[in-house]
Each structure stands twice: as C-alpha cells, then as structure tokens.
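Project standup — Tuesday

K.O.: blocked on the structure for the chain from last sprint. Re-posting the sequence here as requested.
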Amino acid sequence: MPTPANDSQFTWYLVGAGAWFLAFGIQMVMFSYLVTTVLQGSEMGIAVAQASLTIVSMALLLFGGTLADRADARQVLILCQIAALVPATALAAIIWFDALIYEWLIVYGLAMGAITAFTTPAREALMGDVIGDDRTRIQRTVTTTIGVTFLLQMVGMLSARFAADVGPAPIILVQTVAQFVGLYAAYRLSPSTRHSDHGQESGGSAIAHIRDGLREVASSPTLLPINTLALAIGVLFMGAFMVVLPLILRAEFGASVQQISTLQASFWGGTIISSTAISRVGNIVNRGRLIVGAISTGILVLTAMSIQGPLIVLYALVFVWGCGAGVMMSMSRTTVQEYAPPAHRARVLSIFQLGFTGGMSIGSLLTGLYATALGPRMATLVPAGIMAVVLLYLVTQTKLWSITALKHEPPAA
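H.V.: unblocked you, prediction finished:
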C-alpha cells in the first residue's frame, strides 16, 4: 500500500476511482440493454452503438495523456467529473419522457467517450502521485485499485438488474449520483505537481509530445509487446465481449436486463478474484509468463463458447475469462506504471489505454460484420484464432515471455 503520508490521499483516490467504475458498471449494462433489448438493434446497429462509446476516446486519448502530463491532473479530473454529469442526466431525462431513439444513444456514447479520453490518463497519472517515492509498492497499489474499482463496477452492474422493476431512468440517475461522489473525491486530492517537479516542458505542440510518448513505447523492449497485446485485446477480445455476448443472449435466452447484468458481473467478478489473489501473493517477478497464460485462457474460453450450451455454462465460461483478464490487467498495468518515466507517465499510459479503447471501437465494428455472416456462436472462433497467432508471434519474436518486474532500489530510510 502507499506510504503512511499518502494514506489519506490513496483513500480519496480509491473513492473517486470506485465511484467512476460504479457509474461505468451501470452504463455497461444499461447501454447494452437499451440498444439490444429495448430498441432491438440489428447486429451492425449494436456494433455501431458499442463503438460510439470508444471511437471518440480513440481519437482524443493521446491528447488526454499529453494534457495530464503538462497540467495539473487533479484539475483535469475535476473538470471531467463535472462534464460526465451532463450525458447521464440527459439520457435519464430522455428515457423518463419516453423519447429514447437510437440516435440519442449514439450521442450519449460519443459524449462519454470524449470525457473518458481525458479522465483515464489523468486518473492513471494521479496514481503515481499517490504512491509517492516508494516505487517498490506499485504492484500492491495497482492490484488493490483494480480489486476495489472492479468490485464497485460489479455492484453497478448488479444494481442495473432493478431496471426491470423501477425502469431504466432511475438506475441511470444512480450513475449521476456516483459521478457526484467522484467529483467530491477528486476535489479532496492534492494538486498534482508532477509536470513541474520533473521539469516538464511547457513548449512544443501536443503532437510533438504525443510523438515523444510513442517513441518511448516503441523503443522499449518491455512496453512495446505489452502495448501491442493491449491493442490485440481491444480489437479481438473486447469486440467479442461487447457485441457477440449480447447477441448470444438475445438469440438464445432473451437478453433480459437481469441476464445482461449477470453476464457482466460474472466477467468482472472473475477479475476481482484473480486480482485480489495476486495482491496477496506479493511482488511477482515473472510477469510475462502470467500474461501469456491469461491470454491463452481467453483463447480457450472463446473457442468453447462456439459450442451451444445452457445459460449457466455461458456464465461459467465468462467468469473464467474474467479471471484471466484480471491477471492480464494487473500484470500489464503494474509493468507500464513501473517502466514509464515519471515525466511521461500519463502519455505512456494513454498509449496503453488506447490499445483497449481504440481497439474496442475497431473490434466492435469488425465483430458486427463477422457475427452477421457467421452467427453469434461461430463468430467467437474468429477472435480466438487470430489472437492465437498474435500471441505466438509475440512470444517468439519479442521478450513478452521473459518480462519481469523492474528492480528498484530500496527506499531511503
């Protein structure tokens, strides 16, 4: 955990991150439910709607990382939390007055994607500020954060189940309340001085700073394979998760809000269990091997999903997939936090996050195409097969398998 001097700051950081993920959990279930079940969107309609949540984020995320490096990341986070109140409140009002149409969901997705592009790098950069000078405890801090935030995300997903009883609008208003909590928590954090402490230059264009971050990643034998894998996960795994799973639910089981909520909670419940287990192990040295094992688990799960079975089996497979995802997220985020230079941390982390979010946009659209051609079940074999090829290449041609923890000097007494 962080040093005692930073305990209070870490608590407020966790409260803010947890509130954001609680709202995100509600959004994941409600958005999927609204486009899949309420509006009865087509395969491509669902794919485009899901892509709207990340396509603007893909375009702006690197600029968000640059801004978080060049300015007070806390102030950026506060402004983002204020902005996030608007789309959720507007969507709740639209649903309340029975005016929901497909186009309003797209507008909501684009707006939240733009806000997230600046929120995520600012929050990731602030994690490093909260940790302070003791860089030996990054893994514990990252895994604790993942466990807490994903737990609250799952709470948000499960709370969305009540939409069938009270209607979607009140549930989305809970999302707004969570954003208010996140805003207050961001206000309680100390201003970030990392950009000035490390002599962060104020001159130069944003494009130049983004280019510096890309060079940082491309020149690192550790950061490059992890970022490449993040992109592959976004395109192949997240595309399948966002599009194929709701289609399977609708085609075979009806896709009620309870089913969508349980499916999402199964995945993120797995991530909580695995990330919590990792946090109790202590500092893991051979991280590359765990990452390879986690991705291999996802490949096997997607392959098994191509076989039709009962709903409980689908839930179980998604849970196992989530366990692997928790290992991947814990190990990869910890490694990026360790290896990213402090002055460039936000932009390097934004490149890492871009792989997931940008890849998700591309993956959602591509998944819509091959799910239409093959059907939901057989469509799972496409990302499974391509990911197997990508993983084999990274294991044989890069140092992915041999990635280890960065050796730190013990903190000064």
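K.O.: great, moving the ticket to review. The chain has one domain: 4-190+206-402. The first helix runs from residue 7 to 38.
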